Amino acid sequence: MGVINAPWDKNGLSADDAPLVRLCHDLRQYVAAGLLLSEQSSATIDEAAVLGRMSLIRQQFAAIAELLEVEQDARRIGGVNLSRLAGECADVVRVTHRAAVIFERPARVTVVGDQALLRRAIGNLLDNACRAAGGAGTVQVHVDIVDGEAWVEVSDDGPGFGDVASGTGLGLRVVAEAVRACAGRMEIRSTPGAGTTVRICLPAGHRPVRSA
């Protein structure tokens, strides 16, 4: 793996335009998930399913509120449950993408950072991976902690960098900016025809306990 230092000015955005473009880019997936979750199903839905859907809709609004706060420079650096956060991001992309998203919830891993920025980073990684994997592909999410450093890793079985249909071009830039603001780093491994793995490494808050 190698650390990526991307040129941030390739999109030609001015300092004034960048925050709005970045916010719109991130809001897209939460709005799409909320709309899909709020659609009426032709099948009979039991009470448990309705409550589960309402919980996911509430999660989308909470994520949007976080993003709006961080764009107003309301940074909140503190302990973040990385295990739970990764699981919530996985729930969003399962609604908006057809790729199989596999996430085995690990023991609780806590990091020091801003939850809104980390949600933005993980959400963008998952969105990129699902687009790369396609409807028949698989995306895997792992969270762990080793020697005081925590990480979340997203892998897909797509064609690798350079062979994926392009999106807005902001995905990795948004991820890198968010990770850097949380004193972390990003590592990427990509093999043509064998998929891509992106790992976000962050300073851990404390060692894992029994459950997330």
Automatic annotation (TrEMBL):
It catalyses: ATP + protein L-histidine = ADP + protein N-phospho-L-histidine. The keyword Phosphoprotein applies. It holds the Pfam family HATPase_c. Residues 22-206 form the Histidine kinase domain. SUPFAM superfamilies: ATPase domain of HSP90 chaperone/DNA topoisomerase II/histidine kinase. Keywords: Kinase, Phosphoprotein, Transferase, Two-component regulatory system. The keyword Protein transport does not apply. Its EC number is 2.7.13.3. Signal peptide: none annotated. PANTHER family: SENSOR PROTEIN CREC. This is histidine kinase.
